[in-house]
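[Meeting: bench + compute handoff]

Bench side (C.D.) handed over the final construct sequence. Compute side (W.E.) agreed to return the predicted structure before the next meeting so the bench team could plan truncations. Sequence as handed over:
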Amino acid sequence: MTFVVTEQCIRCKFTDCVEVCPVDCFHEGPNFLVIDPEGCIDCALCVPECPVEAIYDAADLPPELEEYIELNEKLAKDWPVIETKIDALPDAEDWADLPNKREHLTESL
C-alpha cells in the first residue's frame, strides 16, 4: 500500500510533509497536495509532520475517504513534484478544521 493525502489538505497545503519525504513523491496542485503511489516507499515520515492530519496509510483510510486513493494517483500524473517546503495558502488556518472540503478541490493547474 501507500500513503494518501485526504481532504483536510484542501485549501491549506501545508508542506511540512514535503520536507521529510526521502523520495520526493509529493505533487503540488493549486490548493492541495497528493502522494504519487508509484514513488511512495511507505516510510510514514510524512504522517506526523502534517499539522491537519490529512495523510493516512491507504490500508487505514476511513471508508468515506477511499476516493482519495484514486484521486492521489490520478493527480500525481498531472501535477509537478514539490521537493521543498513552501508557505501554506494564505487562508490555510481558516480552512484547517473545516469538514467536507472535497468540493473546494481545484484539480486543474
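W.E. noted at the follow-up: Helices lie at 16-20, 67-78, 92-95. C.D. will use this when planning the next construct.
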